[in-house]
Design brief:
Chain lengths: ~110, ~120
């Protein structure tokens, strides 16, 4: 079993839809949870960074962490074609400086 | 404030040649990380450096690969005697120093160097 599991997709939604992206993990030591967005042939861009459980909101994006289920989510409201990209989850344990990345989920938002 | 810079953006090498990839971290960032990304795979950690020090190279192949981050100038990832399997996108990331080490999780990535080995 991989430490971080993420469905590669692609996930195709119409413009304006609410998008839910998810990752599961097996390492209970993970405490820091990140979401990156990567456009085609570009470097990953940090979107959201959360510590421990709970929700964090930033504009149209909401990150949710459920440590009891070892499950994290990224919600995108009012999705736009410009949100079309690959979304990578990443997580790290306290004291570790190396995040473990998921494979990424390809999101396509069509007009 | 310029972001993380990497060059070249594209590099083509023949088998057996050397590849040198350069990374300039964001201003004020003292930590540099190198990752490799293959199609259908996630980002794989290779090496973590601070100025003049390799902190962790556990993700780096034991042979042909080396990295440095000198006191002056960019960080260099060097691949000697490249093989076709080295073809990938190589990303550099940097993070600032913060007490407690939490900044490692706030990494800013460069645009990557796409290495193609013929």
């Amino acid at each position: 079993q991989k430490e971080v599991e993420q469905d590669p997709g692609p996930l195709s939604v119409p413009e304006g839809a609410i998008v839910s992206l998810n990752c599961t993990y097996s390492n209970s030591a993970f405490q820091y949870f990140m979401w990156y967005r990567q456009y085609s042939r570009k470097g990953p861009e940090l979107l959201m960074y959360t510590y421990s459980s709970g929700n964090k909101e930033d504009g149209r994006f909401t990150a949710q962490v459920d440590k009891s289920s070892k499950y994290i989510s990224l919600f995108i409201r009012d999705s736009q074609p410009s949100d079309s990209a690959t979304y990578l989850c990443a997580m790290a344990s306290g004291g570790s400086y190396i995040p473990t990345f998921g494979r990424g989920t390809s999101l396509i938002v069509h007009p | 404030n310029a972001g993380v810079m990497q060059n070249p953006r594209h590099l083509v090498r023949r088998r057996g040649q050397e590849a040198r990839l350069r990374c300039s971290p964001m201003k004020g960032h003292s930590h540099v990380y190198w990752y490799r990304q293959l199609p259908e795979e996630g980002l794989k950690f290779m090496v973590y450096l601070q100025k003049e020090n390799i902190i962790d190279e556990s993700g780096m192949p034991k042979e042909r690969f080396s990295a440095e981050f000198p006191k002056e100038g960019p960080s260099i990832l060097r691949i000697q005697q490249v093989v076709r399997g080295d073809s990938a996108a190589y990303f550099c990331a940097s993070s600032p120093w913060k007490a407690g080490g939490s900044s490692h999780n706030e990494q800013f990535f460069g645009p990557g160097t796409r290495l193609t080995v013929l």
